[in-house]
Amino acid sequence: MADVFPATAPPLGPPDRQSAMRTAARLAESALAVEGVATGDREFRDWYAGRVRDDVAEVRRIALDRLSGWRAEPGTGNLVHDSGRFFSVEGLAAEDVDGGSPGWEQPVIRQPEIGILGLVAKEFGGVLHFLMQAKNEPGNHNGVQLSPTVQATRSNYSRVHRGASVPYVEFFQQAGRHHVLADSLQSEQGSWFVGKRNRNIVVEVGREVEVEAGESFRWLTLGQIHRLLAEDDVINMDARSVLACLPFGGAGEGAPASTAVLRSCVEETGALHPTGEILSWLAGLRAGSGLAVRRVPLDEVRGWKRTEECVAHEDGRFFRVIGVDVRAAGREVRQWTQPLIEPVAQGVVAFLVAEIGGVVHALVNARTQAGLIDKVELAPTVQCVPSNYPRAPYPPQLRFLDEVLEAPAERVRFDSRLSEEGGRFHHAVNRYLIVDWHGDHRIEDDTFRWVALHQLAGLLRHGHYLNIEARSLVACLHSLAGGTRATGTGEEVPAR
Amino acid sequence: MADVFPATAPPLGPPDRQSAMRTAARLAESALAVEGVATGDREFRDWYAGRVRDDVAEVRRIALDRLSGWRAEPGTGNLVHDSGRFFSVEGLAAEDVDGGSPGWEQPVIRQPEIGILGLVAKEFGGVLHFLMQAKNEPGNHNGVQLSPTVQATRSNYSRVHRGASVPYVEFFQQAGRHHVLADSLQSEQGSWFVGKRNRNIVVEVGREVEVEAGESFRWLTLGQIHRLLAEDDVINMDARSVLACLPFGGAGEGAPASTAVLRSCVEETGALHPTGEILSWLAGLRAGSGLAVRRVPLDEVRGWKRTEECVAHEDGRFFRVIGVDVRAAGREVRQWTQPLIEPVAQGVVAFLVAEIGGVVHALVNARTQAGLIDKVELAPTVQCVPSNYPRAPYPPQLRFLDEVLEAPAERVRFDSRLSEEGGRFHHAVNRYLIVDWHGDHRIEDDTFRWVALHQLAGLLRHGHYLNIEARSLVACLHSLAGGTRATGTGEEVPAR
């Protein structure tokens, strides 16, 4: 048989895989370096207290019709920025074309631009560090939290706002010059955004590249970041999202895998379901979904009422669209007004995890959310605001709520209060939990599957798979890799 | 250090990988079985000639305003079906928010439903066979071509058209009961569709499952299909799309890799760029793209004129939207009318391929197309209708056109005329070529990269990566694996 392309050269080694193994081993080492190297724990605490003291903002609620730079678009009432950029608040109608469920309407944020959530990494003393930023966001109930090195919309870094330039953004715009550890477009809240995504990227610069940590920035090891993640409201949503994308997987048996969690992240063995089966399950749900979504004017969203003050659900459930006036000390633009989404109550976001065949798996829920581009992504076992569903029928994402909230303390591996993005959401706080499941693992149904941690890592190389809440929990799972345990209170946020 | 999840069980073997290797080896064997087992070559020829003779349709062009079951929506002129399902023809406006390029408007097909392109596989005589369907589509210039087992829109298989049920669709709706070889949502023509995708799925049924091949169906080996792919206009677009998704990769060194093409498909070694680098390059282009797309009424599309007959470009370039009346013998519904997109000229779709470090790579173009969900996907080296660009400036996808069309015959590995989907496009034919590049491979720039064949296979496990034209070419590349060479004429289609 003719050989169209003659096979002459010898097989090459698999450098892609060797490089992945080295990276995974170095991440594992950084996760174990809980004391830090470039920035000692004491130094960090002093610096962080200083940022909390100096980077202050006065955030006042104002009526939507008093926003400046924003206007209600004639004919629709949609809230749009005068520049036509940033984002808009409009209406969405969701219906089931198969007629199986009644459909609904709601306000959403439309932000078609793709921003950058970028983390610069560099070795100090042979250990990988990450450049974290102390950043005040208007929706944060506690002001400053730790964000990635860069957290910027396209309008931000392309200077639509005419403010200062975004520091360090060049490392991501010219990522090809450096060692890229992770780089994918990932979705954000599919219940509040329509089609929103950000580029989640981690770039390691060589030791020869000078990167000065500005006043709002410090170099931390993964071990330090993981300890802070266990505290309430320190590591912000965008940081969690990009941390989740770090390629822990593929380190092989040589990795310093001192814990079962870390081993399940780095060794690609022993999944209950082959990855192809998970992909097929998801493709089937996406193709089978009858959910159809269309835009409706904000003034005509059924079930919601608009006043001069805000847009709110008629029964007081879900969230409100409010306005805020911000006067900040530490931002590019020092005074502005903007709309924010304010949920009416605290949510619960949780993974049940179990060792199956010696490998740690998380129970994921294939969840349909109207604002997601692919409609269905892998979500946490539980992701809900319980008070939104006072009566049956409960949606699938409440199915394991009791198992999570009533688990005995020794099975609760992680329990912290963490905030959603403070640039779009006002005092949006969820209780994040990781709970060990000791029962029979045969509790899967049409929308639940046990997925091994290394499979989640593999899926996170790509977009469209794990929703933002699941990514937050993956970062929390990684934080258990060093053997630490959650220290947050997990209590309710004080009423405002 | 405390071990939160005690690591007790021994590491398991990697069954996921072993299974992938077995599958890849069986696909390679089927590709080498060019004579067939279940259906001999003579038997196939007789059957196919019979289908061409018996499955005839009369397709007449009619004016758009004479379509029945379709109407021009008041206020927009958009062409919509009376049921609100199937698809619509509307306008799209594309602009560059950075102001770097002028933008344009055009008609597009909007078809938000996800259909099924499904192939049933089964072993006969120890060799994998695939159930191919002889199907007449109204836009095919030659009537019958070979399609996958199932090629159905959601409206088709959920019976909106009140016709006969879709045979074999249950194998894909209940894919989890069988061995799923491939399953992903893949895009279609980003220049003609907005947001269109289909579930591309291959399901292998066990030998114990009875699957009767209906009158329009025959079991063929990959080797047989590959030979037919080298002929003009036999294997239709949907079949090529789903064939491209077959998991050739990962067979390892034990596979029967008699050719360099097959070896480069199955052995995951020696890529010029690590896969992470390719993913990062693509994420950067997607995030950096300033392309913004919005809907406009079909009656108001700038640069296009609408008559009672059709919608056409003012300069006679690109395509027309026409109407057809179909009277068919072999379809679920026997008479209907519908709009179709009719390109004004034949296109060229080509990969330059090269052995780099002994591994076959294809030169892919990261191409921005307004109708793609992620805006940028990996496209062929050349993908254009040359007559649309009579003068400079030529778009990037024309950059290697001369190298392709003027290559000496011994470097042309594949050269066939293949049709695009006959259910939406009228006489849409492209000349598909694979041309060996013998020059220096350092010809990459911002939008071109050499990608190894096994990397393309890896990306095809997921959606959003390879556009439909590139997938067609991947199927053509696979067809070289058995050592056959293209036999199509590659000549121009006769003028109608």
Write structural notes for this entry.
Two copies of one chain form a homodimer. The first copy, chain A, has 496 residues and is an alpha+beta fold. The first copy, chain A, has two domains: 16-57 and 112-254, Nucleoside Triphosphate Pyrophosphohydrolase, CATH 3.90.79.40; 261-292 and 344-494, Nucleoside Triphosphate Pyrophosphohydrolase. The first copy, chain A, has eleven helices and 25 strands. In chain A, strands 6, 7, 8, 9, 10, 12 and 13 form a seven-stranded mixed sheet that branches. The longest helix of chain A is centred in the N-terminal third of the chain and has 18 residues, at 15-32. The first copy, chain A, starts with 14 loop residues before the first helix and ends in a 17-residue tail after the last helix. The interface between A and B is large, with 83 and 84 residues.
